[in-house]
Amino acid sequence: MSLLEKEDDGDLYGVISLQLLANELQEIQQLIGKLNSTTLGHQRLSDHTAKQLGDLRTEMQMLETFDTALVVKGKRDNQRLKKHLEECRNGLYSTVQPTPAHGNCPQGEFMNISAVRVYTPGEYPGSYKYGAWGRDPKPEAGKENWYWVVMLTSGNKFSNYVRRYSSQSSLIIGVSKPGNVLINSANPTTNTIQGPNVVMYEEALYYNCYNEPAVCRFNLTTKSVSKKFYFNCIFTGFCSYGGYCHIFTDLDLATDESGVWVVYTTIQQKGNLVLSKMQEGEMPTLNQTWYTSVYKQEVTNTFMVCGVLYATRYIDKRLEEIFYSFDTATGIEKFNVGVVIKKMSPNIYSLNYSPVDQMLHAYCDSRMVSYKVVFRN
Predict the structure, then answer these.
(1) Among residues 266, 141, 161, which one has the least CA distance to residue 202?
(2) Which residues contact 177 (CB under 8 A, 6 or more apart)?
(3) What phi-psi label fits residue 246: left (phi over 0), alpha (psi between -120 and 50 degrees) or beta?
(4) What is the Cα–Cα distance from 363 to 133, expressed in whole angstroms?
(5) Per-residue H/E/C for 335-350
(6) What is the pTM of this model?
(7) pLDDT tens, 219-264?
(8) Helices marked H in the chain
(9) Which CATH number characterizes residue 251's domain?
(10) DSSP state of 60
């Protein structure tokens, strides 16, 4: 630039032109500097972005490995949980137990009792300590889902009616339909109920007649009562179940797939249980009788499943044990059945098996409790 100025001919235009050229060159230098700075910034940004992409790729690989590990761990946890649940189901409320006796059950071999399936104080919570409840194994058409309840309303010993419920939910919430079916307006009196051992079969109620060594059969349709005297044991306490049960248990009634059974003892049998099959019909009559070697006062309750008699005994306030069985098909007795019932209250005053739904219904200190009978196919 200085060389050009020395060679200037003194013309003002030439000096100005040179100055403009110098300014333009300076602007170009500034632009080149900015460009270089931008290029370096872009380079740094590019390098930083590449590093971030590399880090992200590494993190994604780590996440993929971690996620795979979690999936594998989750599968292992699920398998372990399924194994524990299976072990729990197989060992339901019991350790390894002797195989109970069995009859000709279409469901298979009787094995165990489940946890509680129904637990309800019913319509009158805490009002009636003793009673019985269940379902009719051979119901009328339209009453397949009905339940019945008998509560000992007079002195905890007697009753004169059966109460009906059209469904399990009605029973639980305490809505009775059609309500009470009266045997007699007086309570107690001739042909009314004595003691908690009651069953229903083919729309008829079977029970121990008031103050008589007889089974009464109350027809709920005709409201008529028929009865049968045949027991040589009358309310001495000798013929009742053990001290943890109700005093009026001289006669115990049971139902299963085949009909109605009566469990009792006689002086001639020296207090051992006697089992009789009742013949169906308006007049309760005996069809066949079996004699056992189990002492009745060792027993708290009995029930029938597929022609096999099962007896329970009191263990403590939490447990009852099904300890005995008698198979009517073979005559085989077992004293080591060993199936435990976990109780919801200290005492079980009646047990009824329902072949309709394979449930065992217990009346316990005014509460109604049911358990599922577990069969092995």
Answers:
(1) 141
(2) 164, 165, 166, 170
(3) beta
(4) 7
(5) CCCCEEEECCCCCCCE
(6) 0.71
(7) 999 999 999 876 666 555 556 676 555 578 888 999 999 999 999 9
(8) 2-6, 12-90, 168-173
(9) 2.120.10
(10) H
Q: Are 196 and 130 in contact (CB under 8 A)?
A: yes
Q: Give the whole-angstrom CA distance, residue 326 versus residue 328.
A: 6
CB-based contact 334:322 (threshold 8 Å): no
Do 62 and 181 share a domain, yes or no? no
Give dist(CA 336, CA 318) in Å, integer: 20
Compute φ and ψ for 49, nearest 5 degrees.
-65, -40
Same domain as 54, residue 141: no
328 domain residue, yes or no: yes
Look at phi and psi of residue 16 and say left if phi exceeds 0, alpha if psi is from -120 to 50, else beta: alpha
- Of 72, 99, 119, the residue at which a domain comes to its end is 72
Q: What is the rounded average pLDDT of the residues 193-207?
A: 95
Q: What digits encode the pLDDT tens for the residues 42-78?
A: 666 566 666 766 776 776 666 555 555 555 455 555 5
The answer to whether residues 270 and 368 touch, using CB atoms and an 8 Å cutoff, is no
Task: Give the residue numbers spanning the domain of 62.
Answer: 35-72
CB 150 within 8 A of CB 162: yes
| Two tokens, residue 41 | 């910034």
Domains in the chain: how many in total?
2
Edge-to-edge order in the sheet of strand 161-165: 131-134, 147-151, 161-165, 179-182
Q: In the structure encoding, which two tokens stand for residue 35, read together? A: 């460009």
**CA angle centred on 201, ends 100 and 281, rounded to 5°:** 115
Strand runs labelled E in 197-284: 199-201, 204-208, 214-219, 224-229, 252-256, 259-264, 272-279
Domain contains 92: no
**In a 3-state reduction of DSSP, which class is residue 78?**
helix
Q: Which of 51, 72, 93 is the last residue of a domain?
A: 72
Cα–Cα distance, 281 to 292 (Å, whole number)? 26
What are 268-320's pLDDT values in tens digits?
888 899 999 998 888 888 889 999 999 998 999 999 999 999 999 999 999 99
